[in-house]
């Protein structure tokens, strides 16, 4: 458990350091710098949530595997219990959702500066907003209906895939399809 938390803290620290250096090099545009910092931190938290969800999925499958009779592999033995993993996952999701909300809001201000409009509905914005809705519905479902387990795992992986498509899809469209 301590190893996992140490790795998460180290990754987030490295992301924070790199985002602060980008912010410092942004010069006069503090809105752009804040947006970049929010984007890097949000990505780091959702990457940690994604890997936590994948580990939780393996743990849950292992618990329900009748043929295995509850046996455990070496790497599964070092993971915290399932309920603690769920608490870690939802802590990451709450932090990531708060930062994603800040990212969307700062993106609106940044969009106003760059394009003259707060929201330009390109695929990056659409995928990000859909991911924001997915995570919001998941967290609301957790609070209102007690959603957990595989529902949380699937929603986390789906939301992460949307965020990945928002970033990687943008670069794929611009670099490969439009050759810019």
From TrEMBL:
Keywords, ordered alphabetically: Membrane, Transmembrane, Transmembrane helix
A GO BP entry: cytochrome complex assembly
Domain Cytochrome c assembly protein: 24-175
Entry annotated with the keyword Transmembrane: yes
Cited InterPro entries: Cyt_c_assembly, YpjD/HemX
Keyword Ligase on entry: no
Gene Ontology MF terms: heme binding
TM segment ranges: 7-26, 32-58, 88-109, 121-140, 152-174
Source taxon at top rank: Bacteria
Protein name (Swiss-Prot/TrEMBL): Cytochrome c assembly protein
Native source species: Hydromonas duriensis
